[in-house]
Each structure stands twice: as C-alpha cells, then as structure tokens.
C-alpha cells in the first residue's frame, strides 16, 4: 500500500501543473500522484499528464474524464487512490519539500499501527506571487503539538482560522466509509470536503509546518471577488448541501459542534455578502430563501447562526445597512488577506 495518494485535479492547467507535480513526486517512492484531467480541451494538459505517467511509472497515474468540475475530479482521485492517506493538491498550488519531511515520516509510521490517525493537519501559505507577498495560516493556538489528540483537546479557533482543503490530509478509508461524494459541475466544493467528514474524525495530529502553498492572483481563480459574484448560485448550492449533510446540534462533542456552527456561519456570511453585492431584487429573494432553508432545517441552529456577529453585520436592513455590512467585509478582507 502507498503511504499517500495525492489527487491533482487539472483543467487546462498546462501552464502551471508541472510545478505542482514536481513538488509531489520528490516525496518518495511510497507516494502516488493521481493526475485527473477533467476534460481539458484548450491546451496540452492531457498530453502532459500522460508524459508524467510515462516518466514515473508506478508513482504517477493519469486519469482522463469528461468535464465534471473540481468535485468530480476529487471524486475520481478518491476512487482511484491506493494510499493509506489522501490529499488534494490543486494544479496551481504546490507542497513545500522541507515542511513535508516530518509529515511524511509520521504518515509512514502509521502503517505500523492498528488504528492510524484519522486526520493530519499542517499550515498553509497564501502565495500572492504577483504582489510578492505571503501570509502564513497556522493553528499553533488551536491544536496541541507533538502528539495525537481528539476534539476534546482542541482550543479556540481565531476568526480566520478554518480547516481548509490546503491544510488537511485524511485517512483514505475514513472518506470512503462515510461515502463522501462532492457535487459535479460546481465550484467551492472544497468547503464540503473539510466539513462533512469532521464528525467522523476521532484522532488528529498537527504539524506546525508550512506545508501547502496556495497560489493567489489569477484573474479566473474561483476566489476572485468578481468570479465569486458570478458564481453565487454555486455557493448557495454548496451551503445547502452542508446544511443537509450534518446535524450540527446533535453532535455531543461541544468543541466540534461549535466549530461546525462557526464554519456554517461563515458560509452563510459569504452567501449574504455576495448576494448583497449584486443587489438585485432576485438576489434579495435568494438571500431570504437560503436563510429560510436553514431555519426549516434546524430552528435552533438558525438562531445561533443568525445571531453570530458575522451575520448580524452582513445582514443589516436597508441600503445603508447593506453598505455598512459590505464595508466591514472589505476591512476583514484586508486584515485577513483571504482573497
């Protein structure tokens, strides 16, 4: 069995995918890199994927499929994975070799254990290459270091400290056993990837290592503000699935329950912000509908999320309230540098 399966979703990624894959193949003969060509037609991504497979037989595999979106590519990678652990690395990002050394040593040791760790966590770095700037997102104040731990050992997350796809490495069978399947033809499914599995996670290990380098700056990137405004319906779709997937208030472990509640609050805030940015009567109705959806699903959860400071600020009534809420969002954007 391989130690880690790295799934690399690629869609017209020829310009930058080599740097990503190079950062993975150097990690050892016990890793596999699954390049998922998600119906690329505009460049030579398919040929590059096949070339990587020829040059690294047994380590790199190329999967070609009709375009299904990021979620479909992750699903294909998970279905094909032969590693004990599974990590998604987007094709314009990369992993830091030095940071991965202690992480790989730990993952290799799990082969000796009857019950390997469910989730391994490390830092990620916003690489704003065109600005020559970087922002490290760490969890030193949240997770104990140097040992395996459970949800009862977790501290308080800061306002910008969420577990993102970049920071997690899951045990593969955990994802398969829970039946994780991301929606097709939809952006922002990485939120589902770091939300739905968490109630199934019992054991974790944190490394204060700057593992994942997250490229920020392409105009067509899904986190670009203009792009997010245009894709707000997909944000709503993802949020509805998250509401349906986890019965947050039924979770007994209070730290996990609190974290999931805050994460869903953040998702509702994003929906509110971008619908109010667009500011049409249709968008106002969509905003009312998503809040009604949450209220119908769980009234207690709705009340907690609606009264969260994030959502009080971004849902102030009247046009003045809208401008105040959006102003607060842009201040937070500058402080936390999230896109």
How is this structure best described in words?
The chain is an alpha/beta fold and about 350 residues long. The protein has helices at about 15-25, 45-55, 70-80, 95-110, 170-175, 190-195, 225-230, 230-245, 255-280, 280-295, 300-305, 310-315, 320-335, and strands at about 1-10, 30-40, 60-65, 85-90, 95, 120-130, 135, 150, 170, 205-215. It is built from 13 helices and ten strands. Strands 1, 2, 3, 4, 5, 6, 7, 8, 9 and 10 form a ten-stranded mixed beta sheet that branches. About 40% of the residues are buried. The model has no long low-confidence stretch (mean pLDDT about 90).
Based on secondary structure, the structural category is alpha/beta
- Strand element count: 10
Total helices: the number is 13
Tell me roughly what share of residues is in helical segments: 40-55%
Integer-rounded radius of gyration: 20 Å
Shape: globular
Let me know the largest β-sheet.
10 strands, mixed
In whole angstroms, the N-to-C terminal distance is: 38 Å
Give average pLDDT, whole number: 91
* Content of β-strand: 15-25%
The ordered string of helix (H) and strand (E) elements is EHEHEHEEHEEEEHHEHHHHHHH
Given as residue ranges, the uncertain stretches (5+ residues, pLDDT < 50) are: none
List the main descriptive attributes of the protein structure presented here.
alpha/beta; 10 strands; 339 residues; globular; 13 helices
Q: What's the arrangement of secondary structure elements?
A:
Blueprint: E1 2-10, H1 17-25, E2 31-38, H2 45-55, E3 60-65, H3 69-80, E4 83-88, E5 94-95, H4 97-109, E6 119-128, E7 133-137, E8 148-149, E9 168-171, H5 172-177, H6 190-193, E10 204-215, H7 225-230, H8 232-245, H9 254-278, H10 281-297, H11 299-306, H12 309-314, H13 318-336
Parallel strand pairs: 1-2, 1-4, 2-3, 6-10
Antiparallel strand pairs: 4-9, 5-10, 6-7, 6-9, 8-10
């Amino acid at each position: 069995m391989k130690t880690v399966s790295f799934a690399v979703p690629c869609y017209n990624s020829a310009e930058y995918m080599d740097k990503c894959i190079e950062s993975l193949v150097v990690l050892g003969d016990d890793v596999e890199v699954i390049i998922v060509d998600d119906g690329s037609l505009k460049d030579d991504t398919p040929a590059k994927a096949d070339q990587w497979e020829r040059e690294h037989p047994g380590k790199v595999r190329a999967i070609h499929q009709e375009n299904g979106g990021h979620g479909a590519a992750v699903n294909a990678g998970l279905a094909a994975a032969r590693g004990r652990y599974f990590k998604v690395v987007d094709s314009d990002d990369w992993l830091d070799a030095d940071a991965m050394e202690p992480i790989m040593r730990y993952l290799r040791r799990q082969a000796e254990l009857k019950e390997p760790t469910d989730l391994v966590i490390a830092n990620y770095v916003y690489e704003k290459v065109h600005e020559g700037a970087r922002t490290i997102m760490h969890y030193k104040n949240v997770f104990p270091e140097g040992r395996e731990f459970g949800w009862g050992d977790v501290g308080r997350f800061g306002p910008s400290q969420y577990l993102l796809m970049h920071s997690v490495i899951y045990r593969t069978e955990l994802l398969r056993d829970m039946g994780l399947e991301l929606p097709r033809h939809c952006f922002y499914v990485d939120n589902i990837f770091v939300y739905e599995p968490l109630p199934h996670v019992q054991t974790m290990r944190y490394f204060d290592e700057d593992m994942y380098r997250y490229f920020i700056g392409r105009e067509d990137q899904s986190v670009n503000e203009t792009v997010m405004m245009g894709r707000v319906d997909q944000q709503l779709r993802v949020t509805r699935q998250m509401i349906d997937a986890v019965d947050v208030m039924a979770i007994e472990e209070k730290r996990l329950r609190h974290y999931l509640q805050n994460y869903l609050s953040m998702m509702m805030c994003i929906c509110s912000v971008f619908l109010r940015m667009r500011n049409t009567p249709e968008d106002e109705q969509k905003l009312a509908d998503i809040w009604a959806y949450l209220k119908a699903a769980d009234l207690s959860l709705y009340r907690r999320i609606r009264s969260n400071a994030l959502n009080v600020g971004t849902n102030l009534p009247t046009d003045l309230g809208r401008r105040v809420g959006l102003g607060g969002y842009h201040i937070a954007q500058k402080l936390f540098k999230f896109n």
